[in-house]
Amino acid sequence: MPVPRVPRRRERLQDIPVVGHKRVLLAAPRGYCAGVDRAVIAVEKALERFGAPVYVRKQIVHNIHVVTELEAAGAIFVEEVDEVPEGAHVVFSAHGVSPAVVNAASDRGLQAIDATCPLVTKVHREAVRFARDDYEILLIGHEGHEEVEGTAGEAPEHVTIVNSPDHADTVEVRDPSKVVWLSQTTLSVDETMETVRRLRERFPHLQDPPSDDICYATQNRQVAIKKVAKDADLVIVVGSANSSNSVRLVEVALEYGAKAAYRVDYADEVEQSWLDGVETVGVTSGASVPEVLVQQVLEDLAAAGYRDIEEVKTAEEDLLFSLPKELRHDVAGKRDDRALGGRTRE
Hints:
The structure is a single chain. By secondary structure, this protein is of the alpha/beta class. The protein contains ten helices and twelve strands. The protein has helices spanning 34-50, 64-73, 99-107, 118-132, 146-152, 165-168, 189-202, 216-229, 244-255, 291-303, and strands at 23-28, 54-57, 75-78, 89-92, 111-114, 136-140, 159-162, 179-183, 234-238, 261-264, 280-285, 309-313. The strands form three sheets. Strands 10-9-11-1-12 form a five-stranded parallel beta sheet, sandwiched between helices. It has a four-stranded parallel beta sheet with strand order 3-2-4-5, with helices on both faces. Strands 7-6-8 form a three-stranded parallel beta sheet, with helices on both faces. Strand 4 (89-92), helix 3 and strand 5 form a beta-alpha-beta unit. Helix 4 (118-132) runs parallel beside helix 5. It is globular and about 65 Å long.
């Protein structure tokens, strides 16, 4: 498990004059999605309900700051369930797990709490359904990503992972007349559709999933940054390096017109040189990023003269997911006020 970094101190960004008016275009939606919110609250509630330590398999969500704060509260992050003491509570991350992991936890007598995002669970169910009907499943996603491992683990004999559009040109299937594609939920929409297009050129009978697998939050954040990028000299994406959707936001920003784009975990990583000659800075954050980290970036940019903030809103999000069933009631059996997994935005 990567060791979370404590943000370093550095001199504040300098307000260096540029030709034109300094401003920030702040993308909306940004930050926490419903699945991430639910997963983080699940760990918080498990600590309140059962006491520390509560174990979490992998990072609950892909964000260094979130992991650091939960560790300070008593969560212990492990790579596999065999590192968890027998009988202890373990939370499965938002990215989902394979049936093999569920069975391994059961064999150790662990009290498992499944914080898998419901949208990921939907893809798992699709994999089971198509495997039952003897389809070959082309799973578009990044090999080694926890979500892809979990989905592939639902039907390992039927799943072939397709890593990229180029990989689509070489992948082989047993029966081209009985093949379906599914995808990791956090991919670039454009790249995924290009992969599907190239797969369909080779396999005309390729079947689509019953509904879009790329999650609403991933799509919404990409749509917002596309609108921001065309007017931005620089785009700053707040998010961790292992956050697929955060990394995609950088790529999308560059593809849609941003002159430069960088990903940072913390505001102190923004370099003074990035702002040379920059009038308009676009700012967004990945779906596992708490808003406080974005606000810190905005504060630093304000110190550098970027005080005019215009929010670029392309969608409204009000989706909430119920907490895992083990956490919907308190010790006395009373329904918890946060049973829907929502929190007040900072």
